């Protein structure tokens, strides 16, 4: 398979970069990472305004350029169908696409209230009221998937696109001490034990602290 280039920004702060990177690695792509300048205004928009589509992450592979996270998921699924990024069952596959799309297009209050920061863990954190429905909706999605498909991941015993999309939410819940019941806590622990997430986290912890705005509690 041709070598892939993936443009990302901060490993510590950028949930969209994490999602794109997970998807590429899940598909077995030989990925060379290219970093953008996180001080550039258009790149800070991706981090601070939490836009899902500002050309980061951006995948270049075999003459194709793809920059939307779900488009990356679909592309990787096309070039690496045996990787099983989506469930094999038609009904489960549709469900996986639905919950992945919901994360991609929604949860704006959760993102702004609980910005991704892998270097920090709060013992207590008051979530503002506007974000609480988003947190509850995530709990509902996870519970429905885990109970229906048996875990330990959202669609059974193998990670899928949905897990890549919700992995940054697991890290946010840990960072901001969001309370979870045992079923959901076990799911997050499975995601934290995922070797790909551990690899990404090691890179994030090695990053210099550069974005002061995201250290503010709000």
State the gist of this model.
The protein has 218 residues and is an alpha+beta fold.
Labels describing this entry:
9 helices; 4 strands; four-stranded mixed β-sheet; 50% helix; 218 residues; alpha+beta; disordered C terminus
Task: Report on this structure.
This protein has a four-stranded mixed β-sheet, covered by helices on one side. Strand 1, helix 1 and strand 2 form a beta-alpha-beta unit. Helix 1 packs antiparallel against helix 7. With 218 residues, it is an alpha+beta fold. The chain has helices spanning 15-26, 41-49, 69-79, 90-105, 108-113, 132-149, 161-175, 182-192, 195-205; strands at 4-8, 31-35, 58-61, 64-66.
| Shape assignment | globular
* SSE order: EHEHEEHHHHHHH
Largest sheet: 4 strands, mixed
Average pLDDT works out at 90
Q: Oligomeric status of the shown chains?
A: single chain
What is the beta-strand fraction? 5-15%
Q: Low-confidence parts, pLDDT < 50 over ≥5 residues?
A: 46-53, 212-218
- The Rg value, from CA coordinates, equals 16 Å
Percent of residues in helices: 40-55%
- Spatial strand order of the main sheet: 2-1-3-4
Q: How many individual β-strands?
A: 4
Give the termini distance in whole angstroms: 45 Å
């Amino acid at each position: 398979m041709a070598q892939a280039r993936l443009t990302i920004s901060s490993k510590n702060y950028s949930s969209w970069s994490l999602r794109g990177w997970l998807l590429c690695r899940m598909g077995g792509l030989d990925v060379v990472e290219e970093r953008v300048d996180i001080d550039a205004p258009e790149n800070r928009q991706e981090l601070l305004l939490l836009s899902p589509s500002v050309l980061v992450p951006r995948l270049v592979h075999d003459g194709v350029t793809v920059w939307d996270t779900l488009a990356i998921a679909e592309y990787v699924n096309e070039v690496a169908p045996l990787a099983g990024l989506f469930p094999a069952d038609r009904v489960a596959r549709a469900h996986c696409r639905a919950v992945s799309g919901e994360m991609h297009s929604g949860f704006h209050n959760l993102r702004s209230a609980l910005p991704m920061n892998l270097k920090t863990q709060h013992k207590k954190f008051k979530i503002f009221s506007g974000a609480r429905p988003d947190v509850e909706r995530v709990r509902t999605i996870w519970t429905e998937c885990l109970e229906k498909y048996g875990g330990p991941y959202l669609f059974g015993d193998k990670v899928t696109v949905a897990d890549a999309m919700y992995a940054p939410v697991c890290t946010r819940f840990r960072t901001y001490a969001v309370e979870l019941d045992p079923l959901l806590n076990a799911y997050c622990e499975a995601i934290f034990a995922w070797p790909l997430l551990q690899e990404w986290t090691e890179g994030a912890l090695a990053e210099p602290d550069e974005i002061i705005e995201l250290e503010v509690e709000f």
